[in-house]
Amino acid sequence: MEGKMDSSRSAAEIADLLGAWPRGGGPLYRRLADTLRELIDQGTLTPGERLPSERALAAALRISRTTVVSAYDSLRSTGILDSRQGSGTRISSRVAPVRSDGWTASGNGNPMYRNLFQREEGLISTACLSTPALPGVEEAIREVVAEDLPALMAEGSYHPSGLPALRQAIADHYGGRGLPTTPDQIVVTNGAHQAVNLVSQLYLRKGSPVVVEDPGFAGCLDLMGDRGARFVPVPLDDQGIDGTGVRRAVAEHAPHLIYTMPSYHNPTGTMMSVARRRELGELSARHGVPVLEDSAYTGMRVADEPPPLAAFAPRGAEVITVESLSKIGWAGLRVGWLRAPAEMALRLSRRKVLADLAGPLLDQAVTVRLLGRYDELSRQRSDMLREALDHMEELLREALPSWEWKRPDGGAALWVRLPGVDARAYVQVALCHDVDLVPGAIMSAHTDGRHSECFRLPFAYERATQEELVWRLARAWRELDRYGPVAEEPVRLVV
Amino acid sequence: MEGKMDSSRSAAEIADLLGAWPRGGGPLYRRLADTLRELIDQGTLTPGERLPSERALAAALRISRTTVVSAYDSLRSTGILDSRQGSGTRISSRVAPVRSDGWTASGNGNPMYRNLFQREEGLISTACLSTPALPGVEEAIREVVAEDLPALMAEGSYHPSGLPALRQAIADHYGGRGLPTTPDQIVVTNGAHQAVNLVSQLYLRKGSPVVVEDPGFAGCLDLMGDRGARFVPVPLDDQGIDGTGVRRAVAEHAPHLIYTMPSYHNPTGTMMSVARRRELGELSARHGVPVLEDSAYTGMRVADEPPPLAAFAPRGAEVITVESLSKIGWAGLRVGWLRAPAEMALRLSRRKVLADLAGPLLDQAVTVRLLGRYDELSRQRSDMLREALDHMEELLREALPSWEWKRPDGGAALWVRLPGVDARAYVQVALCHDVDLVPGAIMSAHTDGRHSECFRLPFAYERATQEELVWRLARAWRELDRYGPVAEEPVRLVV
User: Fold this and answer.
1) ipTM > 0.90?
2) CA distances (Å), A56 to each of A11, A32, A60, B305, B447, in order?
3) Least confident of A179-183, B286-290, B412-416, B442-446
4) Start and end of every HTH gntR-type domain (chains A, B) (predicted)?
């Protein structure tokens, strides 16, 4: 929860936190000073913390050193920064300490959701893998209002585990996918994200080792980091998280939890093979390590998709499966769920009571009806994704032939590699071309700059947006190519 | 988070946890053994924990000692309990330790929400102060579906702080109540409960002193206890939390937060006076102690109601106001919000991202429309409550003339005092008459059995339910009167 008091972040990490700072009017140094000031006011940067040198920050932001010098000077003149010979520039300890928001607790300082708070006109943000609502959702809502409303309004009490009809529908849904399930194994949540949060609350405490995929989904790394978990990152191959790596991690670290995204991995789009699912299930049973299977993207398939990992787990394995209809149906619905052994489901539903008592009834009733047309939704969404992927790959191959990626098995993003180029530098250039990208280093529990050549590129946009996006990305790429990793002021001012 | 390992709970606390255990078939000792077994399986009772003596538990449950002896014997024979000369009966350390759910972390072992998980046919549960949905809610839902749906479905991104139109509507709503507010001060949450949780996450950590009302709302005491907060309970008078008590608590404990329910206090129904609101606001400004004003019941007035406490706070005070439409409109909606200084609202919305990314859009759009008819809803709800209160008071005065209560200023419950009688004993008898009551001791951060003569009695039921409830309560009261605090087996078997 507490901000870092005496640590120092790298220039690249500060650049991530600064986000779209050059946007807006006025001199560049002032915009930089103002954005630094905001980060201090918000408690993201804390009193006593050391800032990078002028030279390092200038390089990371691709601006001239004099701009950073002017920005630091102006903050020094108002007592916000201190500089002492030999100890560099620090945030003044006279700045009133503010409560930290835990936002940077994971050590990553996740800028992925930054854009949700700083909406910028004209900027294409790639922070969220949002997909447009399918028409079936609107139909389901209208059916609920036409047919279910009186019964819903008469519900006299809260349902912390979820509306009974929905728990039954979810259990039946798993039954139909080869995973026999009873309603008491289900807890309905406010999206898959809350389900992962509740599981983290139950299984992780300060210092708990947790096996995670590397790269992995920054949103969930964030919330586990916020609980103080200690990450044990394991790489992926094209069948999913590496089995040998997981076995070694279990032997060496006795993890409290293994967190994986089998269908489909975010950000790489990898689908975990049946063999790997079986291997993880057996490992859970043999070593008594619970597995959290986050399948928020299930049903968004480019190729065929096997049943959940839980379906391959032998007796004695503890697998918790998390899903949602946010991606397949509509992000605005915010209904997800978890499936766990019944006694764990009961305990998780008590965490739900502490979190927010229970979920809203209307959205749960809509979800009952959406599950009734799940196959149709999944087919529509998958067709839409395949088409968008084909078009995006075509555009990228043409405009950015040196970029590398593996065609994903599902999900809504490409994991792009920029051979020989630091993606963070490219992210800075892309910002000047009105695209907010998430650099690969953010998608890792490692703090050694791994995946520095990669970034995540969502592709599930309409054609016109795809074309505009790739056009901007190509312009930014040419600029990076022409001016190298550190550009001079005039380039920035063109924006 | 961790269960108690070597503590021992009082017989009364075990009785609270056992809940409606005598219900169902089979011999009484078996039902008791089975329910104890369930509590162990769920991790509520933990290996190594000592159980009360047979005599003490028998007295607390109002059953014969031989029943408890038989129950303990049967659990000993299967290795679940251990008894050693001189050290009493303990849960065997050979029982596999299970992960605790944090349910009992506050030390209270809150059975208030137990009934949400154990729905019993024919039982009248008083655990939640639910109120039936008002017709305006259904109208608002139909309007949203008729008019707002296409725009909602086109929303391309998450809104962690809330749908912009709703934040604006809430800001305007406060403006109209004498509390000028900008939308960036608002964070929309999944009910008032989540708002209190987010504030606790930001302000409280393990050991943080927090001033709370005594008695207070067990649901929120629970979630603060789950964060490891240290409670500093301050009593109330008929103007609200005692000002002198708060000043003394601030001087002695330097609390990180003052948690209060000014409109209306749960469980007493007290409305905080304007003078007391002003006093607390000034205290916050002078000592730099933030105040969390939980007004989940605002608008449910028996008498007139002043503006929020925040409206009386001078410059420099940090007051966070929490509200919801769950009580006034419909509990199934689960839309609440908080109003805070803008920089704190930003930090709280980041906690919202970690919790569940953002709230559902449909319910937020419905809330926009409900705020447009807030005065009408509040008037309807208040009329309904006054009528229900009048009738309930009349029924109680006639059937239970020795009971004492103060007519509440608002809210939906009476705080009843049973002169000379331990409410926990009465709760046990009431259970046999199919009423699940919440004993007063649960509603306190003190663990010394304060408020032992009191219990919370919701009154916002339809007339027929009120009459049935009072009839059952009166039967239970006569039984307690006739057989005293410890009844013999045959009385229990009558049920």
Assistant:
1) no
2) 6, 14, 6, 58, 57
3) B442-446
4) 26-94
